[in-house]
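Slide 14.
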Amino acid sequence: MPIKVFIKRHIKEGREEEGIAMLYQFRHMAKKQPGYISGETLINHFDSRSITIISSWQNIEDWMQWQNRAERAANEAMIEGLLEQPTKYEIYDVSSIRGRQSRNSGHEFDDVS
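Slide 15: predicted structure.
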């Protein structure tokens, strides 16, 4: 099942350009990984230090392989020095709400219009 990974970072004041340049380099590396579909960088309109990366992967296993690679760990170590707080990750399954059962309740969701 495809997934989307939301990576949220808050860069220290005055380090935005350097941080954004690093993030684009990191994406270039991720593009070469098995299972990578796409990615985008969102820069908060009101706070350019608040950045969210959204990457799409064929499945969680592909993401986990990339997340655990030594070269990615080295990238993370470099960017952490530019951040005000630790990076936050959120992983979402990409699927239709219609007919999907809640993992907690066993109930089906109605189609939302």
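Speaker note: The longest strand covers residues 3-10.
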